[in-house]
Amino acid sequence: MIPTDHFSLIITMFFSQNFVKRNTLSSGGAAWKPAEAAIPKRDIPSLNNSTGSVLFALLMSGPDFNLMPIYQEAQLQQISKKFQIYGEILHAETCKIGHINETYSATYDQGGMRVRYIHQKINPSVFKDPATLMKNVVRVTNHLHRKLEGMNVRDITRRCLTLVPTRDGKSSYCNGSGECWRTFVFVEGVQTFESVQSPQQAFQAGKAFGFFQNLLVDLPGPRLAETIPHFHHTRKRFQALQKAVQNDHFNRAQSAKAEIEFALKREPAVDIILKALAAGRIPERITHNDTKFNNVMLDIVTGEAMCVVDLDTVMPGCVLYDFGDMVRTTTSPTMEDELDLSKVRMQMPMFKKLAEGYLTTASQFLTKAEKSYIAFAGKLITLTIGLRFLTDYLVGDTYFRIHRPGHNLDRCRTQFRLVESIEQQEEDMQAHVDKIGKRLS
User: Within its chain, how far is the Cα of 132 from the centroid?
Assistant: First the structure.
């Protein structure tokens, strides 16, 4: 039995300034606060190894904590010396940025000034070839910097991620044990949101990703590497679902009968964009491929979109997939695992502002054919993500982290309900896109 006072104390320790501090890459100076008071060492009772291990396991497994790895001071001290950062590292905090890479915000003393950087360890289980990944990131960030400089844009290091090279001039540091680290300049005075709070935020999200795509239209050199092949390939996702239904190793197909039927009924939509790409009716472009709203940093004061982050999946793709994922993540008022499906809907005011923002910056390079699929793209990508959740549920929840039984099925149902809402409004959505296009032409 775990002593109650130890359990309460360990929770406090995890959120205290002396133990682990949580942060986000997007936090501005006043937006992030450490715990109000640290726990004096004399007040901490000794915990034996078994009790401490159990407490740690309970905390890490709890669905509401989602803690990042514990800050290892000695390791960060060593990593900090590998990059062209001058000054003494004072402290670091774990950052809650996505679920893939291990990320820290580190504060340095440089000539009496406090300056922050981001140290990030690339997850090798997701990105099998960090060297190739970093070649993409270097090419993309260098190009973005050149384009912004040519436009005489101010605050470039707040509008584009900036890599800090290693002491020997490389883009990342890889040690002998297979760990690969990289460092970015910390973007100050910005914040991110898990969901859109207003139509104006939707406008800023669309504008930011459209501008990002526009800047990369003329990226020189060879084709970027595909860091995750077939990332948005709906046919392959559909085939994976069919296989999961056929095998049904966990006897879950019956409990998802309605969702399976929903998915199979929509097979005709699966290949529409793929066939348009293959026939050359729409072009391959450099795309972000993970256009969730929380990947756009907004200025804390003005609310203006400042910087697009999470560049690991920037690779060849289709701009429609980018816009489609924006529709999925910015137009519904609920989280992706909402249990009350009556709340799930595509909000037309949000879509209109999202499309206006996007076309404001992307219309000049989009073809007529690309524009004609914009509303459909929202339906397709939402369906694709729903297929992935449903497949994962059927194969035993092996990919997406779950917090309750049936969690992936709940997520699937939310996506499919959003698909239905988009279907009911798709004609009006596309009409609004066409109207904006005419106004901007």
Answer: 20
Helix orientation angle between 199-215 and 348-362, rounded to the nearest 10 degrees: 30
Count CB atoms within 10 A of the CB of residue 261: 10
DSSP string, 221-277: SSPPP-SSTTTT-HHHHHHHHHHHHHH-TTS-TGGGHHHHHHHHHTHHHHTHHHHHH
pTM for the complete prediction?
0.81
- What's the one-letter identity of residue 325? D
Q: How many CB atoms lie within 10 A of CB 388?
A: 20
Lookup: tokens for 73: 């001071």
The CA angle 432-438-440, to the nearest 5 degrees, is 105
Show the domains of the chain with their CATH numbers: 4-61 (no CATH), 73-188 (3.30.200.20), 191-440 (3.90.1200.10)
Task: Show pLDDT as tens, one digit a residue, over the chain (441 residues).
Answer: 444 444 344 333 433 333 333 333 333 333 333 333 332 333 333 334 333 333 333 333 333 333 445 557 778 888 889 999 988 899 888 876 655 788 899 999 999 999 999 999 998 877 889 999 999 999 999 999 999 999 999 999 999 999 999 999 999 999 878 889 999 999 999 999 888 999 999 999 999 999 999 999 999 999 999 998 888 999 999 999 999 999 999 999 999 999 999 999 999 999 999 999 999 999 999 999 999 999 999 999 999 999 999 999 999 999 999 999 999 999 999 988 999 999 999 999 999 999 999 999 999 999 999 999 999 999 999 999 999 999 999 999 988 878 899 999 999 999 999 999 999 999 999 999 999 999 998
Residues 113, 192 contacting (CB under 8 angstroms): no
Residue 159 structure tokens: 């509008």
Instruction: Classify each residue of 14-43 as buried b or exposed e, where b means 16 or more C-beta atoms within 10 Å of its C-beta.
Output: bebeebbbbbbbbbbeeebeebeeeeeeee
Structure tokens belonging to residue 440: 């901007």
Q: Which residues, 6 or more positions from 170, have their beta carbon under 8 angstroms from its beta carbon?
A: none
In the numeric block, which tokens belong to residue 209? 């990703």
* Token code pair at residue 207: 């504008």
Quote the tokens at residue 122. 């690339």
